[in-house]
Amino acid sequence: MALLEIQNVTRRFGDFTAVDNVSIGIEAGEFFTLLGPSGCGKTTLLRMIAGFDLPDGGRILLKGEDLVDRPPERRPMRMVFQSYALFPHMTVEGNVAFPLQMAKTPASEISAKVEAALEDVRLTGFDKRYPHELSGGQRQRVAIGRALVTHPSVLLLDEPLAALDAKLREEMQIELINLQKEVGITFVYVTHDQTEALALSHRIAVMNKGRIEQLDVPSKIYGFPKTRFVADFIGHINLLSGSVSERQGGVITLAVEGLGPVRVTSASPISVGGAGTIALRPEKIRIQSSAPTDSPDNHYRGTVGDLLYMGDVTVYKVSIPGGTRIEALLANSQSGRAKFFEIGDAVEVSWPVDAGHLIEE
Amino acid sequence: MIVVAVHTPSRLGRWLVSGPPLAYLIVFFALPSLIMVLASFRTPGEFGGLAPLIEEGKLDLNLESYARFFSESVYAQIFLKSFGYALLTTLFCITLAYPLASLIARSSRRYRDLLLLLVILPFWSNFLIRIYAWMILLGPNAALARTVNRVLAWFGHDPVPLLFSAFAVLVCLVYVHLPFMVLPLYANLEKHDQALLDAAQDLGANAWQRFWRITFPLSLPGVYAGAALVFIPAFGIFAIPDILGGPEDSLIGNVIKQQFLETRDWPFGSVLSIVLTVVALAFAGLAAWVARGNLRTPSSARGSRA
Amino acid sequence: MRRRRRVVLWAAALAGYAFLYVPLIIVVAYSFNNSRLNAEWVGFTLEWYDKLFHDQDMLIAAGNSLAIALVASIVSTLLGTAAGVAMYRYPSRLLSVLVLAPIAIPEILMGVSLLIFFVLLNLTLGLVSVALAHIAFCIGFVAIVVRARLAGMDETLTEAARDCGASPWNTFRYITLPLIMPGVIAGALMAFTLSIDDFVITFFTAGAGTVTLPLQIYSMIKIAVTPEVNAVSTLLMLLTLALIIIASKLSPTLLRSE
User: Fold this and answer.
1) Interface contact flag, C24 B10, Cβ < 8 Å
2) Residue B5 has what pLDDT?
3) Per-residue pLDDT tens for B207-248?
4) Lesser CB count within 10 Å: N end or C end of chain C?
5) What is the pLDDT of residues B120-172, one digit of tens each?
6) Residues A108-133: what's their mean pLDDT?
7) Is there a contact between A87 and C166 if contact means CB atoms under 8 Å apart?
8) Rounded Cα distance, C24 and B136, in Å
9) Long-range contacts of range B19-22, CB-CB < 8 Å, 24 or more positions apart?
């Protein structure tokens, strides 16, 4: 049995079902992420785990024990709030010592434990400061230190990096990974930021409208999205819909309107005539000025409709005569070179049969 | 985000917290008010107060005091007079409060709190002292009365006393209630977006048009709130006419005081108090209702057809 | 153009401030005036203050006022804080109406209804009845300040405290109460000021034998305008001013939540 078991949990607010029959098992020592757009139910689920809200149906078990009768203060889990929720009238030391005091830790042990926690979050020497004297990143560390000081079995993090600027966020991501490895505590992390989820997590549950769309390791979530929603939510993607016109060995041919037949390798048992969508990442598409000589790849002629220079890469939106637009990405690895093509250039886009991923509908 | 109460056995906590103040206010506010309503249906006692509730096996409940109120037109007249004073007070307060509130709302952040504090401070000084101050200012030997009467003498007019007059009552009513109008008006004006006025100017509106068609309609919710805050206490006032008014300046508050402390006719005093409450609450309700209606469509409020 | 309008606005506002302050300044100035008539400046004297401090009736009235204000502010702060917390945490129409109505209705109504109530209860009118009445109307003012303070507080702080293992009571004691304390103290100072200044409700509930400062001032000005009233007014204004300034420093929104 997993450390934290969420079994068929449902939560309704009036007519609105915020969390709809969700079941997850989170293992000890795991970095687990709940990912989804705002309103998908991820925060509601986290608050139910923490005890700030109760499920209307289903159970939440920790080490096999049902938590329903335990108010938040009696659950061996700690939350890191998006706003950090540091007590403004207490110093850093006071904040970190607070859970120890509440747990009636002998006063003689408190200062050593506080110091150890501050060392874990690299804030030694800041103990006499007040929260308003700290930077955003430092406050974040205090919040984490306060949550870790009593060595909870699970740490719940509610978009903890959302308030930081991009550069600091990346730094904190690396620190969070290292910290989690170091302390070995299970992290349950809530975010709407897919790159953050991919970077941090052992496993990700992608949520939408209160349900789990896909629960898997990051590379599978990115490379093999199970549903259109997951494919669309995680990163940029081309979605080509049509019906299966041919099955031959492991290769399926999909008749895509406005483009033509597209071939893709798939183990899917989909039969001829079934509807499906091919999810295709822009970085897997080749874009060239002339047709490649006789290859097994999918290839189509089109013209560059728009382009977006992003610095490290350039995104090309290629219009295919049938009306489809294909997004392709080229790395600007050569310095000084901003783009290979101009708007209006005739180009050839192509991708191998194993570049796409078929989603059944 | 949806705020959900932390789950605890909260019923106990709820009663522990709200129980004591609730109990106190029920005993010392709701209950006395209820008793006053009941008293209005009783007969006055022989030596003041109330006649025994049950006498010779008969329950003492009747409508005599209400009948008296509606049959003697003098009381309706006094109500009307009090209503007039309160309404005039409200109008003068709006006129005086508008420049003050807009100045404060437009001043820089640094001075704003100070300017606001200066408006509120007199409100916190003793009510009687503020009335007394006007006794001095309007007194027969004070500079103001002497100047006024000298001017009147030029026109061949007999000297008029400023003190103990309707004028004194009205001036002091405005003086005492002005802060109640400035505060909500300021709170409203402070939120106005300067860009609206810039846009109006850009579209060709002159200063007067900008005020009358943009600022004023948008400030109406503040005006209504202030009107309720001024009107209600002004309507029930008794100390100001008592101290600054002449014999014919008695308002409803004075009559109520007289019924309770001099005539000791509690039932009739209660009837007057209840009518006062009903009129005051009706006015407050009206102000709130009009303000809500205007809040819903702030841009179409009046200004569009002015 | 813009400048001229600004001048007009300033002039109007200045007139407004003058209207508010000239009467009070004259009261203070004449308290130092060496003349029985409050009509024109004759010369400086402290005679009226001296007289004030030897006026036995005035001293008794001041003593009564202070005692009532002390009791009323302490009790109403306890009850008002509870009411403010309850209004924020467990919103209920009944409590809101009961807390706010005494502030909203004309004072005279509360005065006369409490008069009937106390007389029917056979409670001798005096210090006790006045204090009970003052508590009833001060609760609302304290509750408003405390609720405003709570509304300005980050709700996740109480959640964080619970999450850190604090029981609801410990959360209140270590987190909520320290954070709303400035509001509570401001409310207490406000209640003290309201009580010591109250005239109307005291007038009806004090009975014949008990005199407070406002009642004493009332009976004096009903007889004659004397500079001794100016002196006591000045002192009372100073006290109120000090209390309100301290309160507004503690709770900056205090003066706006009216």
Assistant:
1) no
2) 44
3) 778 878 888 888 888 888 888 888 888 888 888 888 888 888
4) N
5) 888 878 888 888 888 888 877 777 777 887 888 888 777 777 778 888 889 99
6) 88
7) no
8) 10
9) B20/C78, B20/C79, B20/C82, B21/C79, B21/C80, B21/C82, B21/C83, B21/C86, B21/C95, B21/C98, B21/C99, B21/C139, B21/C143, B22/C83, B22/C86, B22/C94, B22/C95, B22/C98
Closest approach of C253 to chain B, Cα-based (Å): 10
Identify residue A35 by its one-letter amino acid code: L
Give the mean pLDDT of C101-121: 88
Instruction: Show residues of chain A in contact with C166, CB under 8 Å.
Output: 73, 98, 102
Q: Is C166 touching A (CB cutoff 8 A)?
A: yes
ipTM of this predicted structure: 0.86
Q: What residue in C sits closest to A49 (Cα-Cα)?
A: C163
Mean pLDDT of C98-125: 87
User: Is residue C5 a part of any domain in this protein?
Assistant: no
Mean pLDDT computed over A212-232: 89
Check residue C57 and give its pLDDT: 84
- Asked whether the beta carbons of residue A53 and residue B7 sit closer than 8 angstroms, the reply is yes
Query: Using CB atoms, which residue from B1, B4, B8 is nearest to A71?
Result: B8
Q: Is the pLDDT of residue B90 over 90?
A: yes
Between chain A and chain B, the number of residue pairs with CB atoms below 8 A apart is 17
Q: Is residue B116 part of a domain?
A: yes
Is residue C211 assigned to a domain?
yes
Q: Mutation test of the interface with chain B: which of C8, C116, C228, choosing the one with the most B Cβ atoms within 10 A?
A: C116
Scan for tokens 């509606």, then name that residue: B70
Is it the case that residue B175 has pLDDT exceeding 60? yes
Q: With a CB-CB cutoff of 8 Å, which residues 94-113 of chain B face chain C?
A: 96-97, 99-100, 102-104, 106, 113
Specify the CATH number for the domain of residue B145.
Answer: 1.10.3720.10
What is the total count of domains within chain B? 1
Query: How many domains does chain C fold into?
Result: 1
Residue B62 counted as domain residue: no
Test A102 with C160 for CB contact under 8 angstroms.
Answer: no
- Is residue C182 one of the residues assigned to a domain? yes
Q: Cβ separation of B2 and A71 shorter than 8 Å?
A: no
Residue C223 lies in a domain: yes
Assess C142–B contact: CB distance below 8 Å, yes or no. no
Percentage of chain A exceeding pLDDT 90: 14
Asked whether residue B258 is domain-assigned, the answer is yes
Q: What residues make up the domain containing B86?
A: 72-305
Is A135 a residue whose pLDDT tops 80? yes
Q: Is residue B41 part of a domain?
A: no
